């Protein structure tokens, strides 16, 4: 009896709450993956998708990036209709391409074109990591090579924003060939004295970091971007050494001379315009 008196009686029934899960209404707010601050999506977008609390740079879509860079309403897209074939008939590849096309509203992992920045005409390429993790297949390589050729013809500087997991395994050797192809196209650009600026955003890895992304006359990165060839674990196992915590970050590479500058997104357009201004050909002016 006494035991009954002290028995804890639940006053309320516990109903598994859906509310906890839906704490952050999808679309209206987002949680910063770095500092866990809840951010209002609209404000985040206004701030170029950079966390106000800690400066974390959220990924940008290709079109968001283009809009943040070029003078309003002056972008002409190149080769928008190019689509990947499935030359190796890799199981499931076509379905994945189709899914990513629907999800991203893009035909491939890069948008190329021309526009003005601060009044300076440029050829611009922007990768989109939503499409097959921004991996480089034959279409990505072809679009970059074509953009470089147009830059040579028009004598416009070429600015390329990278965001990529590397080569596209479903295209095998054809994907690896794009490393040589894009590098050759950029060498031609170089020989024609056309400026090439590479901007490495999170993440720039694998065959992309080992080809065009590192070949800029000027190489810039966004803060905190992961940049490297192989993954940390693979390297640690190979060299049998513990790597520093900031290994493969933009800041680490800047310290070791692999980058020229780390530029926060809020300063990116102005910085690029300053570079364009500095390199502008004034002989005709
Ligand atoms: Zn944050």
Automatic annotation (TrEMBL):
Domain called CoA carboxyltransferase N-terminal: residue spans: 28-285
ZnF bounds (C4-type): 32-54
InterPro entries: AcCoA_carboxyl_beta (IPR034733), Acetyl_CoA_COase_Trfase_b_su (IPR000438), ClpP/crotonase-like_dom_sf (IPR029045), COA_CT_N (IPR011762), Znf-ACC (IPR041010)
Molecular function per GO: acetyl-CoA carboxylase activity; ATP binding; carboxyl- or carbamoyltransferase activity; zinc ion binding
Broad class of where this protein is predominantly found: cytoplasm
Any one of the GO CC terms: acetyl-CoA carboxylase complex
Catalytic activity reported: N(6)-carboxybiotinyl-L-lysyl-[protein] + acetyl-CoA = N(6)-biotinyl-L-lysyl-[protein] + malonyl-CoA
Sequence positions that bind Zn(2+): 32, 35, 51, 54
Gene Ontology BP annotations: fatty acid biosynthetic process; malonyl-CoA biosynthetic process
SUPFAM superfamilies: ClpP/crotonase (SSF52096)
Manner of cofactor binding, per the entry note: Binds 1 zinc ion per subunit.
Protein EC: 2.1.3.15
Keywords attached to this entry: ATP-binding, Cytoplasm, Fatty acid biosynthesis, Fatty acid metabolism, Ligase, Lipid biosynthesis, Lipid metabolism, Metal-binding, Nucleotide-binding, Transferase, Zinc, Zinc-finger
Pathway in which the depicted protein is active: Lipid metabolism; malonyl-CoA biosynthesis; malonyl-CoA from acetyl-CoA: step 1/1
Subcellular location: Cytoplasm
Required co-factors: Zn(2+)
PANTHER family attached to this UniProt entry: ACETYL-COENZYME A CARBOXYLASE CARBOXYL TRANSFERASE SUBUNIT BETA, CHLOROPLASTIC
Task of the protein: Component of the acetyl coenzyme A carboxylase (ACC) complex. Biotin carboxylase (BC) catalyzes the carboxylation of biotin on its carrier protein (BCCP) and then the CO(2) group is transferred by the transcarboxylase to acetyl-CoA to form malonyl-CoA.
Family membership: Belongs to the AccD/PCCB family.
Assembly and oligomerization: Acetyl-CoA carboxylase is a heterohexamer composed of biotin carboxyl carrier protein (AccB), biotin carboxylase (AccC) and two subunits each of ACCase subunit alpha (AccA) and ACCase subunit beta (AccD).
Listed name of the protein: Acetyl-coenzyme A carboxylase carboxyl transferase subunit beta
Species, as recorded: Thermoactinomyces intermedius
């Amino acid at each position: 009896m006494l035991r009954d008196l002290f028995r804890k009686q639940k006053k309320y029934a516990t109903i598994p709450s859906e509310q906890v899960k839906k704490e952050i209404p999808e679309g209206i707010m987002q949680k910063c993956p770095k500092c866990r601050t809840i951010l209002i999506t609209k404000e985040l977008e206004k701030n170029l998708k950079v966390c106000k609390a800690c400066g974390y740079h959220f990924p940008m879509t290709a079109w968001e990036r283009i809009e943040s860079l070029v003078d309003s309403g002056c972008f002409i897209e190149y080769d928008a209709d190019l689509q990947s074939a499935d030359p190796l008939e890799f199981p499931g590849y076509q379905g994945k391409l189709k899914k990513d096309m629907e999800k991203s509203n893009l035909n491939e992992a890069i948008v190329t074109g021309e526009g003005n920045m601060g009044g300076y005409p440029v050829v611009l390429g922007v990768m989109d990591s939503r499409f097959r993790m921004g991996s480089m297949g034959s279409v990505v390589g072809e679009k970059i090579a074509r953009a470089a050729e147009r830059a040579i013809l028009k004598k416009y500087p070429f600015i390329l924003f990278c965001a990529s997991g590397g080569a596209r395994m479903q295209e095998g050797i054809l994907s690896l060939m794009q490393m040589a192809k894009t590098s050759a196209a950029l060498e031609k650009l170089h020989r024609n004295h056309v400026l090439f600026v590479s901007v490495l955003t999170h993440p720039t890895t694998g065959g992309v970091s080992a080809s065009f992304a590192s070949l800029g006359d000027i190489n810039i990165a966004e803060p905190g971007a992961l940049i490297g060839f192989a993954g940390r674990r693979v390297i640690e196992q190979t060299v049998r050494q513990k790597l520093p915590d900031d290994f493969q970050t933009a800041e680490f590479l800047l310290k070791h001379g692999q980058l020229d500058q780390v530029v926060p997104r809020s300063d990116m357009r102005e910085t690029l315009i300053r570079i364009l201004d500095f390199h502008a050909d004034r002989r005709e002016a």
